[in-house]
Amino acid sequence: MRVLAAMSGGVDSAVAAARVVAAGHDVTGVHLALAAVPGTLRTGSRGCCSKEDAGDARRAADVLGIPFYVWDFAERFREDVVDDFVDAYARGETPNPCLRCNEKIKFAALADKAAALGFDAVATGHYARLADGVLRRAVDPDKDQSYVLGVLSAAQLARAMFPLGDTAKPAVRAEAARRGLAVAAKPDSHDICFIPSGDTQAFLGARIGVRPGAVVDADTGAVLGGHSGVHGFTVGQRKGLGVVGPAPDGRPRYVTSLDATTGTVTVGGAQHLDVHGLQTSVAVWTSGSAAREPFACTVQVRAHGGLARAVVRPGPTGLGVELGAPLRGVAPGQTVVLYRPDVDGDVVLGSATITSTSGVRPAVGAGSRTAQL
What EC designation does it have (predicted)? Predict the structure, then answer.
């Protein structure tokens, strides 16, 4: 097969490309340039798209003896990832930009261009297992990335390859060293690549501006303070609330809900963070076949953690998800990924964006968007 290997400049994508080469495929490496001005991305090892990464990817391709190109996806990345991130926060939501990048860039824009150029598949360094169209968790639970891949459709998965899903990360680094890849000891990427300063609030504030509102007590509806925009908060946040001191009972306060329409930030005790149910947008099913009847499964609401058993009830406009045990820190804009327990590793069934939650008590008199299922 003709395979396009997406090479980020890290150890995972380099070893993934090496394995595809070793399997006898006709491989071409490509690095995605995601910023019109390179300095707007992270430098060094802290971001997954730093200026140095293109050079590291090129050197890895040279070692593997494969053609290598840099493709400019800056405009698409800005529209589908950066602008989406800013817009979601302006709505009071909590998005995952890495998940959106996988969905819109690596497995939509990149895969479409690869298909147009005659490639049969795109290989990446994600930790997940894929066989016969079935997406499963990786063998290494600490590195499993099936959550961020749960947004992919059956058509996208049909043209994807994840060569690292059956290997633990230490073994991947050891393999990179054996193959003479200089990235063998390169640190893993962290943080958001398009926020060079690491200050998310400052980044959002510069783009959204000042939208003042009130900080309100979840129990009494009393106004406790003010703020310059709901984009400066996330559900579950404990610090920087603009409120003097703890609650009357001496316990800390947390952000429990956000309402961008009224500009209301609701804060309360930890008990207000317990979420027992979710409502979502229309789901994406990795099998290509939509569920019609209620079913039991395991759900995950964050890239690492946020797991619970649940009953999912499909509907015409989305899913109703009844959690077997409460989850905390769940907010609209997050993605819920559905899993079916399996002897060969949990199978990804599909995913959907959370639109509202139940179990969080809104502030008195506030038009909170949290709702009952």
Answer: 2.8.1.13
pLDDT tens, position by position, 236-295: 999 989 887 778 888 899 999 999 999 999 999 999 999 999 999 999 999 888 999 999
According to the annotation, is 346 in a ligand binding site?
A: no
Give buried/exposed letters for 253-263 (b at 16+ CB in 10 A, else e). bbbbbbbbebb
Q: Tell whether 177 and 307 lie within a shared domain.
A: no
Q: 0.85 exceeded by the pTM?
A: yes
Q: Which residue has the tokens 């398009």?
A: 194
| 138 close to 164: Cβ distance less than 8 angstroms | yes
Does a structural domain hold residue 205? no
Q: What is the pLDDT of residues 43-75, one digit of tens each?
A: 444 445 566 889 999 999 999 999 999 999 999
287 is in an annotated binding site: no
Q: Is position 258 within any domain?
A: yes
Domain of 29, CATH number, reads: 3.40.50.620
Long-range (24+ apart) CB contacts under 8 A made by 199-204 are 201/231, 201/232, 204/86, 204/89, 204/90, 204/229, 204/231, 204/232
CATH number, residue 352: 2.40.30.10
> DSSP assignment, residue 46?
S
125 known ligand binder: yes
| Residues labelled catalytic | 101, 193
